[in-house]
Write the structure tokens for this entry.
Amino acid sequence: MSDAPDGAPEDPEGADEADPAVDGGHDPGSSTHTVRLELVDEPGQLLAALQPIADNGGNLLSIYHERGNKTPRGRIPVEVDFEATADRFEVIVGALRDEGIAVMQAGTERYAEELTLLLVGHLIDTDLSDTLSRIEADASTSVADVSLAAPQGTAEASSARLRLEARTGETADALETVRGIAEEKGLRVVAPLAGVET
């Protein structure tokens, strides 16, 4: 039986010792970091995304979960703020990507350059969703917008206008990734499209 007054939490053994997580203290070398993620709309995905942060020493501060606002791929944008040292932050971002979590932005790492291109061919038959997922799997690239046109129906060739965001200086790598996927699937790439309103 505990000696704690009614309604007071019991004191677990060793609770007298200072615990930075309990006392609100933090590693003096840590700072606040933000990651923007894109999650599949399925049960357990948010927990799966938070686990690598906790497992690698991140101290969770806030989560902004926009369930009603979907990305072009039908996923949910989530912004997570946490404290960690610079070294731990890099480990956390790597762990998130290793778990297959789409990291759209990590700290100051931004997708600052845009590229608009056109994919032409049998996009439906070659699985457009798979094509977009494989483009997103390239850590330097994010699909910001997709517009599909199939005037002859899905049995004929169709086209998709893609607006991609790439990290600064990595636009050529993003385009090379798209061209590789397109060649494998027998699609044509028209890029870059200049003067296209996004």
Remarks:
- The helical segments are 20-23, 45-55, 86-98, 128-137, 171-185.
- Residues 28-106 form a domain with the Alpha-Beta Plaits fold (CATH 3.30.70.260).
- The two ends are 67 Å apart (CA to CA).
